[in-house]
Amino acid sequence: MKMSYLCRSVLAASLLLCPLVAESQTTSQTLRSYGLDTFNKTTSSLLVPNGNGLFAETASLNGTQSGGDSGFSYVWPASTQMRVYAALVRIDPTTYTPILRQFSDQLDSHYWTIVTGGYRSGVSAGATRFYDDNAHMAVALMGAYNLTHDPIYLTRAINTYNFVLSGEDDSPQSGGGGIYFSTDRSFKDSAATLQGTRAALLLYQATGLQHYLDDAMRLYTWEKNTLQQPDGLFGEKYYVTGPQAGTISTTTLVNFTSFGLDANILFYKATGNSAYLTEAERIANRTLTRYFNSTNGAIQDEGFWSFELVNALDDLSATDNNPLYLQKVQNALLWLHDNGQDPNGHYGTLWGRAGTVTTPYSSWNLNDMAPVAESYLYTSLVPEPTIGVLLPAVLLVLPRRRTI
Q1: Is the dihedral angle over the CA atoms 361, 365, 368, 370 positive or is it negative?
Q2: Would you call 190 exposed, middle or buried from its count of C-beta atoms within 10 A (0-12, 13-18, 19+)?
């Protein structure tokens, strides 16, 4: 029996695709092994002895731990480590679900401010509370909740988000919106505002409560009107006090744009409005020319910011089914493994801008190791793009429609 043109086209496209899928699957397996190795090196050197699962800020070749606050890391890298555990739960839920819960319990016990709310930057009672730290924690807690459906994570995420939102100020003299960086309220911060937007959208996704979507719309509208640049990237801050009061910093760090990119993906999922997906793609395409090295494909910047771009591009590839973003991330992470780790398997602050590392680091930080482990593991879990987007022949047969 003769095959139809449609069947022949799909078969031919499938045969062409098989090597690409096999190669991508092999890359995913490789990245997973890199992530597990980095995680193991993190725990072997930075896990605090008798610290109930908490980590130190810095470890050294001589075996000592230092930095942070009272022997423990700051809460920002701890929030990233929580996302490492979430990725591990997806790989091995039996082993890591109780470890994730213990870690969250210890963070709540050591860093949470009972009377006024919010995670402190360190374990000391007088440590500063940063709104962006808490936005990072809210996102990490929602990731844990979405995986485990343990209601304690949702409760903690809501409490944390409420503290983040207490940093919002819509008074005209403070710029008419946005969230402050810290409780000293000297400037509004893109990290707090955009990561707060992302937390609100994750809460809306989980609860269906309209006020979270309303919050996200309001926060993002201010950010877009105030700090987003014409090319789609996001500026750093709006000054409220001091000699620069009323002005903005247009420094476009990689993490700000990553939060904005992921927020647009979540807006698209929440509303079904494809304009948000189009905007996410516009932002993503600009990141490929702004933050990736055009020669070797490496992501250039600090790992504790760059891993957010890895996550955002992974999320976009999984959402719009475009393999370009996943391939860019995979190539960057393969370069990082081959060039960015020292002979002992430790990573420094910079990724691509550090060049090829050949000398062992004398010390390394949780804030550098956790982002690398999370990037490897998270990317290894991204689903493979389907035939319909990879090959033009199939695109002609199975066009993707959007409603603008």
Answers
A1: positive
A2: buried
**C-alpha–C-alpha distance, residues 113 and 120, integer Å:** 7
Report the C-alpha gap between 187 and 236 in whole angstroms.
10
Top CATH class of 5-397 equals mainly alpha
Beta partners for residue 180, in sequence order = 188
Largest CA distance in the chain: 80
- Domain residue extents for the chain: 5-397
Helices (H), 64-122: 75-91, 93-111
Distance separating alpha carbons of residues 383 and 319, to the nearest angstrom: 10
Q: Which of 245, 248, 184 is nearest to 222 (CA)?
A: 248
Question: DSSP readout, 171-182?
Answer: -GGGTSS-BBSB
User: What is the pLDDT at residue 51?
Assistant: 81
Q: Residue 240's pLDDT is what? A: 96
pLDDT band per the 50, 70, 90 thresholds, residue 23: low
Q: pTM here?
A: 0.89
- Do residues 293 and 351 lie in contact, with contact meaning Cβ atoms separated by under 8 Å? no
Q: What angle do CA 260, 262, 268 make, to 5 degrees?
A: 105
Residue 372: pLDDT band by 50, 70, 90 thresholds? very high
- Which residues of 276-336 form beta strands (DSSP E)? none
Q: What is the DSSP letter of 231?
A: T
